[in-house]
Design goal:
The chain is α+β, with helices and mostly antiparallel strands. Helices cover 27% and strands 33% of the residues.
């Protein structure tokens, strides 16, 4: 029986039953398996993939929608991967076109590596920003920042959700409410009994990824990072909006080093909604 062409293979929705296949695909491309992150994204978002005739996945990606379920105000595309043996044959382009079509008029965003950026530009995405990935063991200051931080409690959830939507510019209830189970730490900063920032640290291989990181200002963001670092022995990793140069300088002075840059790209929208001045880092670049 002849092998079907890649162009004829159907694109289908992925579920948690595809978790191992998604992790295998990551590993095939030299990425960590990241099963914890894949599980989070496949439950909070929509996975799309193409099955390989010889088993596994030819390609996959995840779309995370924000705002009203019937009419999302924004959707983030991430984890766009094509198996090495099927690379450079147009399958990634076909999957992306399928997703763009499926999302209709919903504005789209993604974080693009230098390798992926030409394809996204060809499809009509525009660069609207950037993020710098930093990683390393955080060295704390003495004395500690004066901002009050503490572990978040269930009673904080309403205030966190309100702050998050105000800063992100769209409802992320389905993401934020999953953070207590997904992350090893969820901490808030407060002043006068009011929450002025929050951040999570979630496990990814041998690191703790800091994200989301939302704060009133740089000083509050610094305090949240320091408080997360004080409760882990793992290296920290995070993706900081390049416009927050003061925070980037600060973390580099305390042990984190630059390991890469991603272009923030958008489709159908000139800039991301919300207040970038208080949005320091995403949950993960795969979810915007």
């Amino acid at each position: 029986m002849p092998t079907p062409s890649l162009a004829s293979l159907p694109i289908r929705r992925l579920t948690l039953r595809d978790l191992a296949a998604c992790a295998d695909l990551s590993e095939d491309r030299g990425w960590p398996r990241e099963e914890h992150k894949w599980s989070f994204l496949l439950t909070a978002g929509k996975g799309y993939g193409v099955d390989a005739p010889d088993g596994g996945l030819v390609s996959a990606c995840v779309v995370t929608e924000y705002g009203p379920q019937e009419h999302p105000g924004l959707a983030a595309i991430g984890m766009v991967l094509v198996a090495e043996r099927h690379a450079r044959q147009g399958v990634g382009r076909r999957l992306m076109r399928h997703v763009i079509s499926a999302m209709g008029t919903t504005p789209l965003t993604l974080h693009a590596t230098p390798y992926g950026r030409p394809l996204y530009e060809e499809l009509g995405f525009k660069v609207t920003g950037g993020a710098e990935m930093v990683r390393g063991h955080f060295t704390a200051d003495v004395p500690q920042p004066t901002v009050v931080t503490r572990a978040a409690t269930a009673e904080d959830l309403t205030a966190i959700l309100r702050l998050d939507e105000e800063v992100f510019g769209a409802d992320r209830t389905h993401i934020v409410t999953r953070l207590p189970a997904f992350a090893d730490q969820l901490r808030v900063a407060e002043e006068g009994g009011k929450i002025i920032g929050y951040a999570a640290a979630w496990p990814n291989m041998d690191t703790h990824v800091v994200g989301p990181l939302i704060a009133r200002d740089t000083r509050v963001a610094q305090a949240l990072i320091a408080s997360l670092a004080a409760h882990t022995d793992r290296p920290l990793r995070t993706d900081i909006d390049v416009r927050h140069s003061e925070l980037l300088t600060w973390v580099k002075e305390r042990g984190l080093a630059s390991v890469g840059f991603n272009a923030v790209m958008s489709y159908g929208i000139n800039e991301l909604p919300g207040d970038w001045s208080r949005r320091f880092a995403p949950v993960t670049v795969a979810a915007g």
